[in-house]
Structure formats: C-alpha cells, structure tokens
Specification:
Elements: E1 2-5, E2 12-15, H1 21-33, E3 35-41, H2 47-58, E4 62-65, E5 71-76, E6 88-89, H3 94-105, E7 110-114, H4 125-133, E8 137-141, E9 145-151, E10 160-162, H5 168-178, E11 184-189, H6 196-203, E12 208-213, E13 216-222, E14 231-233, H7 238-250, E15 255-262, H8 269-276, E16 282-289, E17 292-300, E18 308-309, H9 321-330, E19 334-337, H10 350-359, E20 364-368, E21 371-375, E22 381-383, E23 386-387, H11 393-404, E24 406-408, E25 410-412, H12 425-431, E26 435-438
Parallel strand pairs: 2-15, 3-14, 6-7, 10-11, 18-19, 22-24, 23-25
Antiparallel strand pairs: 1-25, 1-26, 3-5, 4-5, 7-9, 8-9, 11-13, 12-13, 15-17, 16-17, 19-21, 20-21
Helix pairs in contact: 1-2, 1-3, 1-6, 3-4, 3-5, 4-5, 7-9, 7-11, 9-10, 9-11
Bound molecules: shikimate-3-phosphate (S3P).
Amino acid sequence: MMVSRRAARGLAGVARVPGDKSISHRALMLGALALGESRISGLLEGEDVLRTAAAMRALGALVAREEDGVWRVAGRGIGGLVEPDDVLDMGNSGTAARLLAGMLASHPVFAVMTGDASLRRRPMRRVITPLALCGARFAAREGGLMPLAIEGTGEALPITYRVPVASAQVKSAILLAGLNARGMTVVEEPEATRDHSENMLRHFGASVAVAESGRGRVIELQGQPELRAADIVVPGDPSSAAFPLVAALLVPGSSIRITGVGLNPLRTGLFATLDEMGAGIRIENRRISGGEPVGDLVVAHAPLTGVDVPPERAPSMIDEYPILAVAAAVARGTTRLRGLAELRVKESDRLAATAALLAANGVKAEIAGDDLIIEGAAGPAPGGGVVATGMDHRIAMSALVLGMAAREPVTIDDAGFIDTSFPGFAALMNAIGAALAVA
Ligand code: S3P
C-alpha cells in the first residue's frame, strides 16, 4: 500500500525521468539481432525491460550492464538467435511479449512465452494472426491467451498486412519477423502509431520506407538486411514525464523542469491536450538525440479547463489517459475522452480502472460506449479513496498524483508494479515536494 497526501506547498526543482520504455525494449532486441556490439545509454532499468534483457540472453545474445550504467549487447545477426532452453517469462510487459513473438516467428526455434496474471489476460491473437501468415505456428490458450508456444520458421514469408487496430506493438512484431523474410514486408496502419521501430531499424542499417496513402501509413521493410551494431541514447520517457508534469499543473505554487524528455510527435498527444486545457507547457533545449527529438519540459501550476479529445488522437497518447483523467478531475468543466476501446486491453481494463479510480475519490466519471466523461471539480478533488491498481503501474501512479491535489489522502493497494516502467517514482516525486509514503 502507498498513500499520497496533499502536497504542503508547490512542487519545485528539476526532475529527470527514466529512459523510454518503448525505445529501451527495441534497443535490446535490435542489438541482439545485429552483428557486433551495441552500446545503450539511458536504458530504462524497469522490470519490463529487464525481462526483455533476460529473453535476449536466453536467445544467445550477450547482454551486460557496465558500471557506468551503459548496457552492451553483443548480437547474433539476423537468423542467428538460438532456441531458448526454458520458458520465457515476460512478466507484465505486453510490448516485450508481442515484439518477441515477431522475432521468434522468423527463426527456426521452438519457444514458449508466459507472463504474469495481467499479461496472461491480454490478447495475443493480434500478433498470432499476421505472424502465422509468415509461416510460424502457434498454440495458445483459449482466446489466444498466453502461455503461448511458438514454432518459428527459418523460411519466413514476407507479408503485406493491414493492421486492424492502431497498435505499434503489432506493427513492430511484423517488422521484426520481416527482418528474416526474403523480400519486402509491408505493414499498413490506419492511423500512425509510434515509429520507434522504424527509426531504430534505419539506425541499425535496415532499409525502411514510409509513405502516407489515403488508407493510412504504409511501411515497407526490405528483408534480410545486414543489421550492424549501433549506439543508442535512450531519451526520457514522455509517458513517465506525464506524472510529475500533471502533478505540477495541479498543485498550486508549483514550478518544475523535467529534463531530456523524448518528444517524438507520435508520443506527444498528452502535451498538446494539456495545452488546450490551459497548461502552457514550455519546451526548452530542443535537440535531436539518438535519432529522436528531445527537450526539457518547463511547467508551472495552471488552472485547467475541460476538453473534448477526439478519438484520432488516441495513438499519440494511448498510455496517458489515466493521468489525463486525473487532470480533468481537477479542471473546471466537463472533459470527454473519445474512442478508448484499446484501453480495455492494457495492463488492466484501464477504461474501467480509470473510472473506478475517480469514483473512489469522489469525482464524477462515466463510461459511455468507448468514451470517458469526467466532471471536473474546479479545484482539489475530494479524495479519501483506496484505489485497486489491478497490476497496472499507470493506474497506481495516476492515483498517487490525484492524492497530491485532493482534500483527503489517496491510497493505492499495491505500489509494486510501478517498478515495471518507473523505478524510483516515489523518491523522484518526493524530491520535488510530493508526500508519498508506504502505508
Ligand atoms: C507500445 C505500444 C502501445 C503502448 C505500449 C507500448 C510500444 O501498445 O500502449 O505501452 O512500445 O510499441 P499498443 O501497440 O497495444 O497500442
């Protein structure tokens, strides 16, 4: 249990959030598929990413952390992964599981993947269907659930596939499988999703073409490139920066700077939405680092107003709805978040969990179809609730931020899962003035 009390005074100081989770998984995976030694600095050392590191070792790559915090990955080359001699446990991480399924699909190995109770409830059919078209064979539990057995193929077919849901994980799984297919793999996505895989594949020497068409975005990958080891600098995770950022907006008297945050335009929907609500976020020190745009976020307390967020913005802020809902709870007026069906298949049913988080703390929230409607309190929320986090790190952190701007403390039943994406969260928040304590 952890409890969050209203901050005594405004938050202040400089914060540096851990490395980007999406980029960290991909850096380890492409490092394992490249020839030579890749060096990764700023890797997120959260449990999800450590699962990926362990899986890469089980597939024959050498993965080591140096004393200075730089990670080195000696890869095996495309097609060179070895058969793991035990079940691969991907813990809580959907990204790790789905991207790994793609890598395994085009290697002639047998592997079994499992995960924790949350991951074993999450749909895997969305990757099984396209990867089976490549020639891999799968056996899963009823409903396409893990544990999942994979029989990969050394003669994968390049496929052309239109992804039915906006999902960077599905897109990335197909591209990773396509690396060891002879010919051109084509993925069409109806709405653009985060493009870290495309960027990093290029960085490692693959040829990836991206074009916009009337039907969305088309990504073409030339199979069997020679992936060469590369150095990666992982930016701060904008999805993690979201928590101190919203906390500073909600707590009167706050003014903070969050340094080195990734600003890939396919990740920054939350910042745009908060600005529409009146946040006035300043971005300073804009630069390109490791092929991704990066900058410092400077933010102060600001009164926020409710907004109507269109469904097409969802892919650029898919992980940020719970914390946005917390901002909306303190804002003036009604907020409507539209088109959130995908939230139902995250680490928890995040649509239901977000509504329950708010309701437990006296905030009026209602689910209407795939939308979430929140009545803002125009000031501190009542608070006083105990939130069931449902093995979901982002629900846990969102509830704790609500407690910082609520009249009564907010308690969460389990803070353990925060370490999947944001190790050191409580210490970082307390260093800028929060009052989070183990209860
Ligand atoms: C991710 C994609 C998103 C996101 C997840 C990370 C990725 O999932 O929610 O946290 O790294 O590709 P979907 O692909 O299921 O939308």
